UniProtKB/TrEMBL annotation:
Its cofactor is Mg(2+). Its EC number is 2.7.7.24. Belongs to the glucose-1-phosphate thymidylyltransferase family. Gene3D superfamilies: Spore Coat Polysaccharide Biosynthesis Protein SpsA, Chain A. SUPFAM superfamilies: Nucleotide-diphospho-sugar transferases. Pfam families: NTP_transferase (PF00483). It is an enzyme of class 2 (transferase). NCBIfam families: rmlA (TIGR01207). This is Glucose-1-phosphate thymidylyltransferase. The lineage of its organism: Bacteria, Bacillati, Bacillota, Bacilli, Bacillales. One of its GO terms (molecular function) is metal ion binding. Keywords: Magnesium, Metal-binding, Nucleotidyltransferase, Transferase. PANTHER family: GLUCOSE-1-PHOSPHATE THYMIDYLYLTRANSFERASE, GLUCOSE-1-PHOSPHATE THYMIDYLYLTRANSFERASE 1.
Length: 289
């Protein structure tokens, strides 16, 4: 399975912050925002990952993690010439995806702890699509999935005026290889974008859409507004201080997944020892399991 992080868009809801830097490079407490979606793909066992962003922002992503080899993964980069919608990521990444299945995650989505079991279920499905639903107070802002009395998915709508449920579809999606052809066939919406909801509807019509429901035990933040960006940062700080472990720490995850050795983790830590982040990595490396 391949992985794609879509870190494009213009970030208009975060102006003037996004006049300075890409939304996905903004800090969420002690890490760049895109570390969090990257860590989700890595947690799912995906090591071959493409980051899609604008031509002006891509060099900054490359400066941060390069080709990913120091993390035991492969990072590639591709330009999004202009924002064409989430489903456009499959057109941009068609050659990269090849004949593989693919997971797509948005660069501004931050997931909390405890997502691991749901990721395993999604990865285990070689056929169809898997999306994740999270209960929200304002579902009209999102793609919304609803269910019949038997608990089966019966609709998925993009920003409905009258939502049929309060379950928003998060910015994390797993698809089989058919997604590329499906993305090619959908038409731009009224706002001129290739909507990911239309891709999900296609899988629903084929009877191949799976929905994993998340709850309070696995928080989710769409950090596209100043308020939600702050909320995510506060959550990360509180969790890390209370539990003594980090969320979205890609170096630690590389070590625990066996992508890098203990000595390689120490090397990564030694390059950052003036920060609390680097000191944390040294503690992880020196902890006997």
């Amino acid at each position: 399975m391949k992985g794609i992080i879509l870190a494009g868009g213009s970030g208009t809801r975060l102006i003037p912050l996004t006049r300075v830097i890409s939304k996905s490079l903004l800090p969420v407490y002690d890490k760049p925002m895109f570390y969090y979606p990257l860590s989700i793909l890595m947690e799912a066992g995906i090591k071959d990952i493409m980051i899609i962003s604008s031509s002006s922002d891509l060099p900054r992503f490359i400066d941060v993690l390069g080709d990913g080899s120091q993390l035991g993964i492969s990072l590639q980069y591709e330009v999004e010439p202009s924002p064409i919608g989430i489903a456009g990521a499959f057109l941009i990444g068609e050659t990269f995806i090849g004949q593989d299945n693919v997971a797509l995650i948005l660069g501004d989505n931050v997931f909390g702890h405890n997502l691991g079991p749901l990721l395993k279920k999604a990865v285990s499905r070689s056929h169809g699509a898997t999306v994740f639903g999270f209960p929200v107070d304002d579902p009209e802002r999102f793609g919304v999935v609803s269910f019949n009395d038997a608990g089966q998915v019966n609709s998925i709508e993009e920003k409905p005026a009258e939502p049929k449920s309060n379950y928003a579809v998060t910015g994390l999606y797993f698809y089989d290889n058919r997604v590329v052809d499906i993305a090619k066939k959908i038409k731009p919406s009224a706002r001129g974008e290739l909507e990911i909801t239309d891709v999900n509807k296609a899988y629903l019509e084929m009877g191949a859409l799976h929905v994993e429901l998340m709850g309070k035990e696995c928080p989710w933040f769409d950090t596209g507004t100043p308020g939600s960006l702050l909320e995510a940062a506060v959550y990360v700080r509180q969790f890390e201080e209370e539990k003594g472990v980090k969320i979205g720490c890609v170096e630690e995850l590389s070590f625990k997944k066996g992508f890098v050795s203990r000595d390689q983790l120490i090397t990564l830590a030694n390059s950052q020892t003036k920060s609390g982040y680097g000191k944390y990595l040294l503690r992880v490396a020196n902890t006997k399991e």
